[in-house]
Write the structure tokens for this entry.
Amino acid sequence: MYIEGKFIVEKVPQLCYNDSEGVTITESKTEKSAIRDVEHDTPSANREIKDGVFKLLFEKPENAAELYYALTGIKCHPDEIQIITITTVVSGEMKNDLAFVVRDRVLFAGEHQSTPNKNMPIRILMYLGQLYEKWFRMEEEEGFLYSTGQLKIPKPEFAVFYNGIAKRPEKEILKLCEAFKDTSGISPDDNSLGLLKLEVPVYNINKGMNAELFSKGEKLRQYSEFVAKLREYQKAYDDFNKAANETVKYCMDNNILVDFLRENGGKIVSILTAEYNAETHRRVYAREYHEEKMIETAKKLLRLGTPIEVVIEGTNLDAETVRQIKADLDNK
């Protein structure tokens, strides 16, 4: 929150437990402190459930209604929007994803953070059970599952938004069937044992893409501007926290998500920095894991008498490291 030139940083650890029926419940405890420069605590992934900036923006019914119009061309009133939060685990971290019910339809709206993910149909298939279970409880319809009458449920719809740096088309369709080990019998003409079909549209919401979509969804367009400006400041500053702060200040000064940032500025910086730290940790771990594998490969090659120059070229390890490995092996 932004008050008289100061950010209010909101730290929102969410405590999870199971109720008597095994349903995951979340409670939030909010601690606020006023400071001139935004500070943050990076949350521990196994203690807290994280809200992304995208989810925080579009969980507002008026913004969700605008997003739905941008995707479908169907106008609806914010009062028709029923928000459902789905708690998911991605890369060992718990995070909240967004879904909402509108006019007997339920839309799952997910976001790629950095890299394309061809497994989104599988993830959404897993989310659907949780989503409908929540809807049944909200509507107090659980008992009707065991009745003989036909139960009517909201029609599922999906949209995933990509904002990574890798070049992708404006829109692509990911299909669940592409993940099947056995692809025989999945055509409409050969489904005597039933057929599960799930297709997910992925929209590229980077700046300069999907002009038609942005023309119908002003908040989505401004979100794209926000992400683009954050990337620009990341290149300008070595300190990511500084880049995040400057992004928020620039956008507020230039009429980009102004009300949203004024209300949530401190929280947004915390979210962005936590996501950045988690992504950095994953990259460091992946690099270290790859190096360990190359060291093991180098040992095997050297034991077979492979020349050092060949080992260096084949593993991309530096010459000093390979020579040290050879010396250690020779001394055993």
Summary: Residues 291-331 form one domain. The longest strand covers residues 93-102. The chain has two domains: 41-180+195-289, 291-331. Confidence is low (pLDDT under 50) at residues 1-50.
